[in-house]
Queue: 4 jobs
Job 1
Amino acid sequence: MVGSVIHRVAVIGAGMAGLVCARQLADAGRRVVVFDKSGDIGGRLATRRRDGLWWNHGAPAVHVRSREFLALLESLERRGSATAIPGEAVARFVGRPDMRELLRPLVEDLDCRFGCPVALLAPGSDGWRVALHQDEAAEPAFDAVVVAIPAPQAAALLAASGLPLPDGMEAVRMSPCWTLLTAHGDRQPGLRQLGQSEAIERSTVTDLGPDGPTTCVLHAPAAWSASRLEQDADAVALALYAVLSAVCPADLPAPDYLAAHRWRYARASAPLGQDCVWLPDLGIGLAGDWCPGGDAEGACLSGRALARRILQA
């Protein structure tokens, strides 16, 4: 790839890092195709919807510490997909109407392919081919590939493609998180006054109307989640609801909805320690919060840093 001009870029992953990188490349005139194994954008800025109810069961909000990230969120706020939470010591934003929609303006006019799990990257004389699990190849070849998925998944993709890991990547660690999703048909004030528990890292309660229903998302800490990582989701849901009931100051009725979701790679507990990875000889870049650390803001800054590297190439 040394000395070649990068026109077409495949971006694997439609979370914060991938979409920020894709948007910056597309705005600079590059032809970008985004692939994601799920059915929509967001990654860990995720929302589940059922029968008119919704839960932000990934990140309930994004924290802002840098001017660059603040500028992006303010631009998204002007476009109606984000809103700042008032009265916060550290600026926080949420998506409108939910966290998944926060990134929606970034995909306008982008070519996004959902339900497309990428199996391997195959080199050719004309560039990289992106092979899907259906043994299909994306048309045509790409001059560069951005891998913007959690570090263990990125490492597995590189290994399947016969590519070496970048220096330091084998030391990256990501911790899990089990989340509990509940719904009650009417308001439950006690859910906003929970006591302390080693099984609760944070909880978010949303009233979806003046008289209910109320949805609640509970995030379990990394250590609690890791010790139950391979347990059945229904069993974890019951265990977490028992904890929720025990620390709630009011009696909780049986929920109208109860489920648990496992984030196997929720956050970088041991990040790479650099903003992104760009391998110019291969034309492959890696980005995500696991590069610099810092959750959604780290993912944003990583995606932007990688886009700059590609444009400079």
Job 2
Amino acid sequence: MTETTRRTMVLGAGSAGLAAVLTACASYGSPTTEASAEPPEDEASSDAPKKKTEKKAAKALADTADIPKGGGKVFESQKIVVTQPTDGDFKAFTAVCTHQGCTVASVSNGTINCPCHGSKFKIEDGSVADGPASEPLAEKKITVDGDKIRLA
């Protein structure tokens, strides 16, 4: 008679369990004819919302009339500042100061102004007009469509 050892039992049971798991996994994710078939007529499939395939236009950030010529406006929740250095020329920059990450608060006298340490950035290109910041504000892409300004 052979004596069944603990190791034999564990290995034997493990092999059988592993075989069962591998068999179950082999069919996981395989397409079935039921899943790809049309729903039965008695199911209310027409009530389900349809997915839209066309891309919806981005919500307008602002109207062009909201951005004063020679100034700008800070959109704090979007962390964006939009400026209009010259008539009809709109620019957008991050509203996060490059000095220590404060949100800029205002646009006046041709500069975007940070309230934390006094950094100022030019409305034309976001470059530093007055420190302590040493890096410009990153430019953000926008589109102007009619009288609407949108993030690109």
Job 3
Amino acid sequence: MSAGEFILETRDLTKEFKGFVAVSKVNLKVRRGSIHALIGPNGAGKTTCFNLLTKFLIPTSGQILFDGADITPEKPAAIARRGVIRSFQISAVFPHLSVLENVRVALQRKLGTSFHFWKPEASLHTLDAQALSLLNQVDLESYAGIPAVELSYGRKRALEIATTLAMDPKLMLLDEPTQGMGLEDVDRIRQLIKKVAASRTVLMVEHNMSVVSSIADTITVLQRGATLAEGPYAEVSKNPAVIEAYMGSANVELKGTH
């Protein structure tokens, strides 16, 4: 195994809340250039794990390594600057800005000019070509001029992925990207994740097993904050402990469709 094979590693990552262990000694290894899915029943610790990786929460113990560097003591902004960018579970777009303007704001953040309020708006038009290119990647180019509030739920999520891409992530963290979607939107986002993952690494929390089974290279199953199983979908889905963990969970279906 080469030293640079894994873009992200956690070593015995643990988070306790007043005696309750939400994440317990998780050793995660995310292979560079892969799609890695974090799954598990409700309350398994998936979102807490994401919050630890982006330093929205401070680990009780353990280490987080990104690109070989120990980032455990770093603040969220420093981690984002390294290229660890998270797309949130709830669609986070500016509803009354146009689709293009939403992407332009994200591009501004990357340039570090977000707070240059006195700059004329015309100076932002230099970012339009780049913003349109990103919209083209997520099939939203034809919606560039409309207010984001008018987009369907699935297209809002696609816009959110475009704004995440505008930050030029090395590692994209996607939190429940298909939650609350109909079949057509789920399929659109599935194809989109596969497309954007061609040139970067994706770590995703996802409940939809048909999405996980069709695009994830590696799956880590969490249960009660600890790693229950890890491996490709075909192997993990047959694991008796995993099947037992999901039994009676109404919102999860272990059978994926390819």
Job 4
Amino acid sequence: MNDPITLTSAFIIGLLGGVHCIGMCGGIMNALSFAIPADQKSSTQVTSILLLYNLGRILSYSIAGALIGSLGWWLQGSTPLAGPSLRIFAGLMLIAMGLYLAGWWRGLAMLEKLGGKLWQRIQPVSKKLMPVTRSWQALILGAVWGWLPCGLVYSTLTLAATSGNWQQSALVMACFGLGTLPVMMLTGTFAHQVKSWIQKKTIRVLAALMIIGFGIWTMAPPILHGKHEHAQSHPPASTNSHDHQH
């Protein structure tokens, strides 16, 4: 699945998922913008710190994409059913994420709790990097924070797993991370205005419906292909008049 549509979809999912990113990472973005001493603070420096933090986060997403892409490549090489099954699973995960964003079903919260076990081991590293006053601290902190348990990331990782190779999977996750960048940068600089707008019920529901639409689009090809193959293997009975001759 190396088509530009998948990369574009990953970017848009990240962009729409900003309503979720606000809740997950908004707090640390605010902390970063206020961590710089007042006598050193400038708009350029704040922007640089926020950008490096987000680049570190996107780097971690890409690494996770490469790892899950390697697993997906291995699965698809071991059985021909793995590819279609992965796409259907990815579609279901995206639909679940949409339901989660809208507040209609919070099943992904259980998955985030499982990821929390890994986060408990990583989180102490992030505390040692605070407060962030240097560029390298922001970059490493972002790389650490990229492993925060997040249903949106997990859902997109399942989409990345269908790509067929680790390079493409890493690229899918990089596009997803770039999609989250505008909201995350605005959150750091215009936190209160962005948060109040993006957490409106209407915005959340619209974003959720579009992500659900991406989920349906993702799982449609293998389902339709399966129906087509089933129809070919079970042709309709002939109604030719010769069949009725005795």
